[in-house]
Amino acid sequence: MNGDDPAGDAEHPERDAVRISEVERDILGADPPSSPRKRREAKNDRIRREQREADEFWRGLLNSGPVARRELWRLIAGPTNAHAFDTRWMVSPSGMPNQQATDYARGEQDFGLRLYHAWLRLDASAVALMHAENDQRFAGLIND
Description:
This protein has 5 helices and no strands. It has one domain (31-138). It is extended. It has helices spanning 22-29, 36-62, 66-77, 99-122, 124-134.
């Protein structure tokens, strides 16, 4: 058995072999930092790297074309998704205010707004283009 195969493949030949990437191999083979300060620094480095990778991911989607921007718009502004720009006041079947449902809807909206503001911070011009392409309030700002 080589180092890339999961344990137990001989017992379960129908299992697909798991391949370990170079990054995972580096992580698994790395010695743990010895001091608390080094562990903290390693954790902070990992957090910064992951944030940079996330920013690159979202920026790439925002700039990859109108289909990606449409789907991102649906994610944050769609009526069955985060409805970031629509405040909902929920009522029960009898027509009485339903505070729990309203609070739940507010949580969805807050999530959509947090995501929207993160995108705006990353690439305001791509977000403006997303509005122009998908937001009826911005209709006519770009030529199709």
